């Protein structure tokens, strides 16, 4: 399996949506498309997005939000937020999520980011365990009552 990690371009929002379409996740498809169309034009200013690809097939994605309205999650200077980590079902547990996470952490350190945050649904125990394994801990309740915020210090840059 040859996996290539690369930064996404603003016009490629539909490649993220394709992961959901291929997996027939109709319940999330419309919402993901709406968010992707809003988020991808912010590449380079408020966020960075990476794709994991096998050949020409996008099999994973992750975002690094540099600046958010919730400034304790991403303030544009020292704190940034992991957002929309998605790995296609057939590729989960293969280490692609870890590769994407390491890519984001490396970029965050280069930008002088000291703290990473993320929001995760309370009931998504699998994701919460992965984030704990990566060094995240509980920070606070989420803006959405169904979510929590987790935080990770990147240590000395």
Automatic annotation (TrEMBL):
Any one GO molecular function term: acyltransferase activity, transferring groups other than amino-acyl groups
CDD domains assigned: NAT_SF
Top-rank taxon: Bacteria
Residues annotated as domain N-acetyltransferase: 3-155
Keyword annotations of the record: Acyltransferase, Transferase
PANTHER family named among the record's database cross-references: AMINOALKYLPHOSPHONATE N-ACETYLTRANSFERASE-RELATED, AMINOALKYLPHOSPHONATE N-ACETYLTRANSFERASE-RELATED-RELATED
Protein name: N-acetyltransferase domain-containing protein
Lineage, broadest ranks: Bacteria, Candidatus Roizmaniibacteriota
């Amino acid at each position: 399996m040859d996996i290539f990690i690369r930064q996404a371009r603003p016009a490629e929002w539909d490649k993220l949506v394709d992961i959901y379409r291929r997996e027939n996740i109709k319940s999330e498809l419309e919402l993901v498309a709406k968010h992707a169309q809003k988020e991808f034009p912010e590449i380079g200013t408020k966020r960075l997005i990476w794709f994991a690809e096998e050949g020409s097939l996008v099999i994973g994605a992750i975002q690094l939000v540099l600046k958010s309205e919730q400034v304790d999650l991403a303030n544009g200077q020292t704190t940034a937020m992991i957002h929309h980590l998605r790995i296609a079902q057939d590729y989960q547990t293969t280490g692609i999520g870890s590769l994407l996470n390491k890519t984001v952490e490396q970029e965050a350190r280069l930008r002088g980011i000291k703290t990473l945050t993320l929001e995760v649904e309370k009931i998504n125990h699998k994701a919460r365990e992965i984030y704990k394994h990566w060094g995240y801990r509980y920070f606070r309740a989420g803006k959405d009552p169904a979510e929590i915020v987790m935080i990770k210090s990147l240590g000395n840059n």
